Amino acid sequence: xxxxxxxxxxxxxxxxxxxxxxxxxxxxxxxxxxxxxxxxxxxxxxxxxxxxxxxxxxxxxxxxxxxxxxxxxxxxxxxxxxxxxxxxxxxxxxxxxxxxxxxxxxxxxxxxxxxxxxxxxxxx
Length: 124
Prior knowledge:
three-stranded mixed β-sheet, 1 helix
């Protein structure tokens, strides 16, 4: 009788421990891995990189905007963004603002873009 009781007790102990752990794992909401928007901003005339350009990304359905500035090489990077459709806006005091709409960012992907800004006083 005791020989049948020990395996039964062992099985019950395993179930008591594993069932709550598995149930908790299934109840968590799945969040897809984030994406990243990155690129370079240059002067439209000289083709030189632009420093300290404010780059903001906003998405429909998401509150707030993600903001960064370009580095000395004109590069920007907006990491850890949820998947969605974004609008990028580029602003610098000496240049006309520019924006790019309908950028589809998928989970765990990177979107690269090269943007040329025109000085505020130039006409096309």
